[in-house]
Design brief:
Number of strands: 0
Order of helices and strands: HHHHHHHHHHHHHHHHH
Distance between the termini: 36 Å
Helix content: over 70%
Radius of gyration: 21 Å
Oligomer: single chain
Shape: globular
Strand content: under 5%
């Protein structure tokens, strides 16, 4: 990899090819490795006789592996940059889908998804965010917003495309085609567009004197991990639980799906608003406000039975909050501790949150029965978000520290 400028040199302009390349690869990677599965899962279970619970468990295991592998990936990103990590992740992602497509039994199917989990850690948002934070600083929020807006289109593009392919061929052949598409679109994009010199790490803020170890041991870091873990669990359980919640209230599957889909549109809208929010609110106030608003929308979904237009409006507002929360976590490290150890710290901070997000859909479905239904589940999830908003008060570092305040 090419060397960056010497320490202390003025940073040059960000490499032009990186932003469009990462937009392309985030759409493709999320669309193929993540969003194709829920589309193909009914065909997988019908063809193989494996239970939906078993196949979904394999997918959830991949997400847990991604969370754990992200810690190691973060360390590599800080020192070597994203090119090797993301290119290798693209190759591994393509190979893992071929293993899944050829799986003769559930054990091999699980193996393929565990490999896919390692690939997710290397190609999803975390390494892309690390690249943009280092190359685009101090204007990284704009770059992060652009890439997350593109990533938000992944399901819009690849869910219908996957359904079209599955309508003309088997699920195994569909995964082979998708594996080839992933390789063709993302391997060269990562290998070529990310070859720019990796800039040296910026100096730590004045209040960080003991390296990343001091940060990890700090109360603010531990409280941030608790906050984002609780928030992620509640957020993803709400997303997956919205359709059964509305169906319990007598709405059709189509109506419930539209409410969920329009909530996704709200998520895209929310990401466009984050830069303005960051200019007007300090990082702690921003964290508390967004998570508290998430609790409010969850409570509204739990208690408001109709009319349908009102529920859709609440779903859209909840999506706006989710869109902001994605960027809130992407900037959590730089806002509090600078970008010196961004990859390592974001990997450690994000690991429990990503694991919670992976387990939330399953846990939500299990809890809904004993609680008496999805409205009661949503009340519980709103309570978890309130707790997260309270713990967010403990994420403050020092007054006036960081680009967005203490």
């Amino acid at each position: 990899m090419a060397r960056g400028p010497p320490p202390g040199a003025a940073p040059g302009p960000p490499p032009r090819a990186v932003l469009p390349a990462l937009c392309l690869t985030q759409i493709t990677s999320w669309g193929i490795v993540y969003y194709a599965f829920p589309v193909l899962n009914p065909a997988i279970t019908a063809d193989t006789g494996w239970s939906a619970g078993a196949t979904t468990a394999a997918f959830s295991a991949a997400l847990v592996v991604s969370a754990v592998a992200g810690i190691y990936v973060g360390r590599v990103l800080d020192h070597r940059g994203p090119r090797t990590v993301m290119t290798a992740g693209s190759v591994l992602g393509s190979l893992s889908l071929l293993v899944i497509a050829a799986a003769p039994d559930l054990a091999v199917f699980f193996t393929g998804w565990l490999l896919a989990g390692a690939a997710m850690a290397a190609v999803f948002y975390q390494p892309a965010f690390a690249a943009l934070t280092r190359w685009w600083a101090p204007d990284h929020i704009r770059a992060l917003t652009v890439v997350t807006l593109a990533g938000g289109l992944a399901s819009t593009v690849f869910a219908p495309l996957t359904a079209i392919l599955a309508g003309h061929m088997s699920w195994r052949a569909t995964y082979v085609v998708l594996a080839g598409t992933l390789a063709v679109l993302t391997v060269p994009a990562h290998a070529i567009a990310l070859k720019a010199p990796w800039p040296p790490a910026p100096p730590s803020p004045p209040h960080i004197t003991g390296g990343h170890e001091q940060v990890v041991r700090s109360r603010a870091f531990r409280m941030s991990a608790v906050t984002f873990t609780l928030s992620a669990f509640a957020m993803y359980a709400v997303v997956i639980g919205l359709v059964p919640l509305l169906m319990e209230r007598g709405y059709t599957t189509t109506q419930a799906a539209w409410a969920l889909g329009l909530g996704g549109a709200g998520q895209t809208l929310g990401r466009t608003l984050y830069a303005s929010l960051a200019r007007h609110l300090g990082v702690t106030a921003r964290t508390v406000t967004l998570i508290a608003l998430g609790a409010l929308t969850t409570a509204a979904l739990a208690t408001v039975a109709g009319p349908y237009a009102l529920l859709v409006s609440v779903s859209v507002l909840a999506g706006v909050i989710r869109g902001n929360l994605t960027l809130l976590q992407a900037t959590a490290v730089t806002d509090r501790w600078g970008a010196t150890h961004y990859g390592r710290l974001s990997g450690l901070l994000g690991a429990p949150a990503h694991a919670a997000a992976a387990l939330a859909p399953f846990a939500g479905a299990v809890l809904a029965g004993p609680l008496g239904g999805y409205p009661a589940l949503f009340v519980l999830l709103a309570g978890l978000s309130i707790i997260a908003a309270v713990t967010a008060l403990g994420t403050r570092t020092r007054p006036g520290i960081g680009p967005s305040g203490g």
